[in-house]
Amino acid sequence: MSNTLIDRLIGKAIEHGTLQITYHDGATSNCGTSHPEYPDVAIRLTDGKVIRDIALDPKLGVGEAYMDGRIVIERGGIMELIELVRRNAPWEAKGSFGRPALHRRALKRMAFIKDSFNNPFKSKDNVAHHYDIGNDLYKLMLDEEHMQYSCGYWSQEDMTLGEAQEAKLAHIAAKLMLEPGNHVLDIGCGWGGMAIFLARRADVRVTGITLSEEQLVLARERAEAAGVADKVTFELVDYRDLAARGDTFDRIVSVGMFEHVGVPQYETFFRACKRMLTGDGVMLLHTIGRFGSPVAAEAFTRKYIFPGGYIPALSQMMETSQSVRLMATDVEVLRVHYAKTLREWYARCMEHRDAIIAMFDERFFRMWTFYLAGAVSTFEWGGLCNFQVQYCRNRYTLPMTRAYIEEAERKLLSR
Q1: Which of 96, 114, 168, 409 shows the greatest Cβ crowding within 10 Å of its Cβ?
Q2: At 201, which helix (H) or strand (E)?
Q3: Quick one: how many helices (H) and strands (E) in the chain?
C-alpha cells in the first residue's frame, strides 16, 4: 500500500505537534507543526504490511504493530504518540480518529453482540483473562495502601496516588450514608480495599464478592493483615447467584465492575441489586462511562484487555435501573480524575519495566502500556468519564440536600 495512505489516515489529523514517519523503504513524511503544548514524536515502520493493518482498523492496527515491534518509536513514547493524535481531535470538537473499514465495523458489531451475553460461566472466564494474570503485576502498578484498580478522586492538586484513592473510598462511603452495624455488599470487591476501608472507618460488616480467584486469595490475606477479618467476608460468587440465594444487605457498593456486566444483563443486574437491597437501603454504583451515545467496545480492548467488556452511556443505566424501580437519587460525573490515575499507573509500569518483562515478556509490556496510554487519552481528550450513581428504593431514605456527603467524608478521612 502507498505511504500516502498513512498521510491521509494520520497526517491530516495532526495540526499541532509533529509526527515524523520513516517507512520500511527509507522514505519519510512529516506531519503537523511544532507547538509547545503538544508532543513531537518520531516513529519507524519496519514492514509494508503495517500500513495495510492500520488502514483496516487504525486503533487495532497501531496497537498490534506496536506490540509486535513493527512500529518503533524513535522519539517520544507510546503515551506521546497516542496523545499527539487524540489531542488533535478532542471529543468536544466532534473529533474522531480511526474508524475501521466497513467490513471491520460489521465484524466489530457482531463480536460485540456475541460478547455481551455474559452468563455466569463466561463472566468468570472474562474476569480471569484480566485479573488472574497475577497479583504481582498489580502490586507494582497500584497504590500500596488500598490496591485500588479504579479511578482515584483528586480533590487536591498535589495528592499522591494513595491519597487520591483514599479520598475516592471516603467519597463513595459518604454517599452510602453508613450507620454502625450496617451489612454492606461489595460487588466486584477486587483485592479488598473498599471492604477493608469500610470495616475500619465506618464500623460496618462487609461481604465482598469477586469472580477472580487471584483477587480472592489476596483480599483475604489483606483483610487478615488489616485486623478486620472478623468484619469482612470474601466469596467467589456471581452476583446473580448471590441474589438467588436470598441474601439481603443494608448497603450495596460496586466500583469498576459494571463495565463487565454486558448490556443484555443490565436489567438482570439492577433487578438483582434491588432484590438484595433492604427497603431503606442505599446503593452506590461507580463505573467508567461515556459522554456520547452507546457504541461497541474497541477491537483492541475487546481482544486483549477486557473481553466481554462494555462502557455504558448514562442513558442506558437510567433506562434499565428505572425499569426495575431503583431510584437514582444522585449522579456525579468525574471527568479527568481517571486520566490522572492512569498516568500514575503508567509511570509505575515504566519504572518497573524490567520486572514486568521478566514476569511476562516484551510483547506483553508493550500491550499493557499501549492499553494504559490509550485509556489516558480517552479520558483527557476522548469521550470517556466516570459516573457515580446513587440509588435507593425509597425516596425518603436520604436527606433532602447533598450536605451530608461532605460532612461524612471529613469524618471518614479523620479516623
Answers
A1: 168
A2: helix 193-202
A3: 18, 11
pLDDT digit string (tens) for 354-403? 999 999 999 999 999 999 999 999 999 999 999 999 999 999 999 999 99
Nearest in space to 87 (alpha carbons), one of 76, 103, 72: 76
How far is Cα 315 from Cα 290, in angstroms, rounded to an integer?
10
Here the cell at position 411 is 469524618
**DSSP string computed for 252-286:** EEEES-GGGT-GGGHHHHHHHHHHHEEEEEEEEEE
Nearest to 300 by CA among 234, 369, 240, 239: 369
Residues forming beta bridges with residue 205, ordered by sequence position: 183
Contact predicate 41/80, CB 8 Å: yes
Q: What is the mean pLDDT of the chain?
A: 91
Confidence band, pLDDT 50/70/90 cuts, at residue 296: confident
Q: Report pLDDT digits (tens) over 254-293.
A: 999 999 999 999 999 999 999 999 999 999 999 999 998 8
Residue 376: CA count within 13 A, CB half-sphere: 22
Widest CA span of the chain, in angstroms?
Answer: 70
Radius of gyration of the chain (CA): 22
Q: What is the pLDDT of residue 3?
A: 60
Q: Which three-class secondary structure state does DSSP give residue 181?
A: coil
Question: Which of 374, 220, 235 lies closest to 306 in space, CA to CA?
Answer: 374
Would you give the end-to-end CA distance of the chain in angstroms?
Answer: 63
Is there a contact between 339 and 379 (Cβ–Cβ < 8 Å)? yes
Q: Cell numbers at residue 326, please? A: 431503583
- In the predicted model, what is the mean pLDDT of residues 139-153? 97
pLDDT at 104: 46
Using a 10 angstrom Cβ sphere, with 0-12 exposed, 13-18 middle and 19 or more buried, the burial of residue 254 is buried
Say whether pLDDT at 222 is over 50. Answer: yes
**How does strand 40-45 pair with strand 249-255?**
unpaired
Reported pTM = 0.91
For residue 302, what is its C-alpha cell? Answer: 475487546
Q: Which of 85, 46, 51, 41 is nearest to 68 (CA)?
A: 46
Report d(CA 99, CA 154) in Å as an integer: 33
More confident residue, 7 or 70: 70
The full length of the chain comes to 415
Please identify which residue in the block is written with the cell numbers 481531535: 89
* Of the candidates 328, 410, 414, 343, the residue with the CA atom closest to the CA atom of residue 377: 343
Of the chain, the percentage scoring pLDDT greater than 90 comes to: 80
